[in-house]
Amino acid sequence: xxxxxxxxxxxxxxxxxxxxxxxxxxxxxxxxxxxxxxxxxxxxxxxxxxxxxxxxxxxxxxxxxxxxxxxxxxxxxxxxxxxxxxxxxxxxxxxxxxxxxxxxxxxxxxxxxxxxxxxxxxxxxxxxxxxxxxxxxxxxxxxxxxxxxxxxxxxxxxxxxxxxxxxxxxxxxxxxxxxxxxxxxxxxxxxxxxxxxxxxxxxxxxxxxxxxxxxxxxxxxxxxxxxxxxxxxxxxxxxxxxxxxxxxxxxxxxxxxxxx
Length: 260
Prior knowledge:
- The protein is mostly helical.
- It has helices at about 1-25, 30-50, 55-80, 90-100, 100-120, 125-130, 140-165, 185-200, 215-225, 230-235, 240-245.
- It is globular.
């Protein structure tokens, strides 16, 4: 088991180091977002390769879940980045704050820290790979029942936002239609459902219980650290957004308040 976990960690270290060099060359730490989803696909591929011919189709379904989530997310972020004229505001602000230390802090605080979270969040598939393949059971069924709607919610929310931003008449406006009418962050809600689906699916494997640290971590990141809080802070002084806040759920899809 430990050799498999170490192989995933070593892959992540090399992968994130390579992306650091690319980001420094392009002077765009926002590339870390594109690297994020693909990194999980790489981890899943590494641990599946280590299993060899003993993976079994139940494990391959788990691999497919992680790969589908990671590939879709990275492709979406790559398409979005092609139209972006400048570095994402989060990374641009950090670059200014770091001053002459921005190179090594980019490596440590953006890419290696992201790599650490990647390793922790991907624990469900790593630990499943270290387990004997079970027969199909309730945990696999429940996991898929969470993953599929979560994947669709995240994909639809991202597509709706991209389509909204294509229209120049919407510049400076707050997205409040489609799934965004029912949640201020439906993409993050969908992503959280995806990873709880993956974590619960992995409970069917003997070591899967420890893998729940993965969905717990991504939920904490999105709700308390780099997801919802950062974007909410960005629009703290935007009157239109604050009116949107009063009537719209922050995370879970929920009917908007009337009269707010």
